[in-house]
């Protein structure tokens, strides 16, 4: 006879206790504010596992860079230098435009657009669970990362930081089902709300009336109205519009510019001026 | 009462399975990734139900919640329920052939995914896609090999 029931409570009682515990956890995590802090501690606790899991990838990339030929490295270097030159040229013009813009804004009596500090972070892990699109970054509160900080890459907005540990932090991507943000249609200036669907390549615009002026291919940029994302960053392109008059709203889907399933490096933004002195390198 | 032996091997295999679950991979491959931690856990529940059962399942499920980023407690509950089914019927299931076991594991995995979806839908309002069920198929296919491997490990280290 197996000694399974010899010690401790019976299986049913154990299941009952465990069910109560889990339900308690779910309620705490979903409906209270303390969970963000709790999550941060837990993220820190399990970060060794994530480090181990990302080792093969790190080693493989390292090896492939190691074996890259000298010739190809030189070519890539030259390419990058050329791109840098071109971009710094555009940047000079941009700075001039920014100054001009700020002056005009002053004339109009509205607040000038401030540009905060930036920090590059590397992605340690990407979660592909369909019900949670999150990434873990290798920067934490030691580098001045705070909660709700926006995250971009060279193509567009990626998401926002949701929990911070000392050396790592966790960010929610714009495609997560629990994520929503305020956008603006660049062509018309109409504000819309975008929700994640749990799929890598699309987000959904909600509560759009049938009469709204929207076309396939319209660019969507952040509106800054949600108070989290600074204004004017590109987010997605309208990919599908379904006009079904039996539905109360227009069904619109958009495709994010950023390649969310293959992010390696991200840029953390400090939108407000007051937080800019805590940040790390530029 | 049997002497506890090689309990470290159980935990080591579970930790390895957790690492496999969060290992970065291309999105295409990720879609088919079996639920390693659940499969390894189910093996130990089947083989040594008095060493690994609902308590272990809860802890592992909780770790999966933290690692994967689902709402805390969702995986913990689903793991515990699946482990309960396995532990309550371990003597019957042990006598099944590997093929029958695989099919049963497939059923359990489908049940697990249904629970996860149902809880997540209730908590965060996710939408169902048939793609979410690929791990059920891959998990079913992986089970015979995993079973064989873990039985080798158990006998090698004389885990009791």
TrEMBL record, chain A:
Name of this protein: Cell shape-determining protein MreC
Family statement: Belongs to the MreC family.
Role, per record: Involved in formation and maintenance of cell shape.
Species the sequence originates in: Alkalimonas delamerensis
Residue ranges occupied by any Rod shape-determining protein MreC beta-barrel core domain in the UniProt entry: 123-270
Keywords: Cell shape
Gene3D superfamilies: Rod shape-determining protein MreC, domain 1, Rod shape-determining protein MreC, domain 2
Pfam family, one: MreC
From TrEMBL, chain B:
Pfam families named in the record: MreD
Source organism per UniProt: Alkalimonas delamerensis
Domain of life: Bacteria
Protein location: Cell inner membrane; Cell membrane
This protein's UniProt keywords: Cell inner membrane, Cell membrane, Cell shape, Membrane, Transmembrane, Transmembrane helix
Membrane-spanning residues: 6-24, 36-60, 66-86, 98-120, 132-150
Signal peptide (from-to): none
InterPro entries in alphabetical order: Cell_shape_determining_MreD, MreD_proteobac
Protein name per its UniProtKB record: Rod shape-determining protein MreD
Family the UniProt entry places it in: Belongs to the MreD family.
Functional description taken from the UniProt entry: Involved in formation of the rod shape of the cell. May also contribute to regulation of formation of penicillin-binding proteins.
């Amino acid at each position: 006879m197996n000694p399974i029931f010899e010690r401790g409570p019976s299986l049913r009682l154990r299941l009952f206790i465990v069910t109560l515990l889990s339900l308690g956890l779910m309620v705490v995590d979903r409906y209270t504010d303390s969970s963000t802090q709790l999550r941060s501690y837990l993220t820190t606790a399990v970060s060794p596992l994530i480090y181990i899991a990302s080792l093969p990838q790190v080693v493989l990339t390292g090896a492939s860079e190691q074996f890259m030929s000298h010739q190809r490295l030189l070519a890539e270097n030259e390419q990058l230098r050329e791109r840098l030159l071109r971009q710094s040229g555009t940047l000079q013009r941009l700075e001039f435009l920014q100054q001009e813009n700020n002056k005009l804004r002053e004339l109009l009596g509205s607040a000038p657009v401030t540009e905060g500090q930036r920090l590059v972070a590397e992605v340690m892990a990407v979660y592909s669970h369909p019900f949670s699109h999150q990434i873990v970054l290798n920067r934490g509160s030691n580098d001045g990362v705070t909660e709700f900080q926006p995250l971009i890459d060279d193509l567009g907005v990626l998401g926002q930081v949701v929990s911070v540990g000392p050396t790592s932090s966790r960010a929610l991507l714009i495609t997560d089902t629990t994520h929503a943000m305020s956008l603006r249609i660049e062509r018309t200036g109409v504000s819309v709300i975008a929700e994640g669907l749990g799929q890598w390549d699309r987000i959904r615009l909600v509560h759009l009336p049938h009469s709204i002026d929207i076309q396939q291919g319209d660019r969507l940029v952040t509106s800054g109205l949600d108070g989290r994302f600074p204004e004017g960053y590109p987010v997605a392109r309208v990919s599908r519009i379904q006009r079904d008059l039996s539905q109360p709203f227009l069904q619109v889907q958009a495709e994010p510019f950023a390649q969310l399933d293959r992010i390696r490096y991200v840029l953390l933004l400090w939108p407000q001026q007051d937080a800019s002195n805590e940040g790390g390198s530029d | 009462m049997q002497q506890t032996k090689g309990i470290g091997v159980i935990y080591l295999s579970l930790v390895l399975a957790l690492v496999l679950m969060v290992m970065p991979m291309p999105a295409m491959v990720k879609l088919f990734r079996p639920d390693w931690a659940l499969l390894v856990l189910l093996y130990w529940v089947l083989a040594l139900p008095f060493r690994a059962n609902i308590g272990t399942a809860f802890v592992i499920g909780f770790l999966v919640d933290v690692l994967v980023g689902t709402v805390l407690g969702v995986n913990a509950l689903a793991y515990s329920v699946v482990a309960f089914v396995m532990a309550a019927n371990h003597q019957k299931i042990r006598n099944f052939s590997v093929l029958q076991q695989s099919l049963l594991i497939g059923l359990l995995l489908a049940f697990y995914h249904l629970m996860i979806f149902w809880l997540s839908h209730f908590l965060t309002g996710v939408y169902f896609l048939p793609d979410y069920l690929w791990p059920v198929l891959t998990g079913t296919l992986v089970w015979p090999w995993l079973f064989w491997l873990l039985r080798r490990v158990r006998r090698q280290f004389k885990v009791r």
